[in-house]
Amino acid sequence: MKPGYNVLIGTENQFIVGYSLHQRPTDTRCLKPHLEKVKAALGKLPDTVIADAGYGGEENYAYLEQEEVQAIVKYSTYHKEKSKKWQLEVGWLSLAHNLLKWATMNQKGRVRVQV
């Protein structure tokens, strides 16, 4: 069972500039409301937001871009994609995809391969 609350704290030069409490267990859905609260309190958003991969999501990236805030936020599969296992699996999937594509084209008579 996941916790029912999520607490976010924003800092600048090691000083707390904002905090928020959310009834959402996932980080992804908390970033925008947190930054809106910070913006309301300070009158503006920070120039740069640094956050871990838990906050990486298309909606958050779009929001930060719209607000012209530099985002240093990893996407959620960053660490997975850097692993050797992931790279091997993607390599095999790519090879399988290309073989299936070649077989389909060959069956339709569009491509002739001589060996």
Automatic annotation (TrEMBL):
GO molecular function: DNA binding; transposase activity
Membrane-spanning segments: none
A Pfam entry, by short name: DDE_Tnp_1
Xref: InterPro entries: Transposase_11 (IPR002559)
Top-rank taxon: Bacteria
Example GO BP: DNA transposition
Protein name per the record: Transposase
Source species: Paenibacillus naphthalenovorans
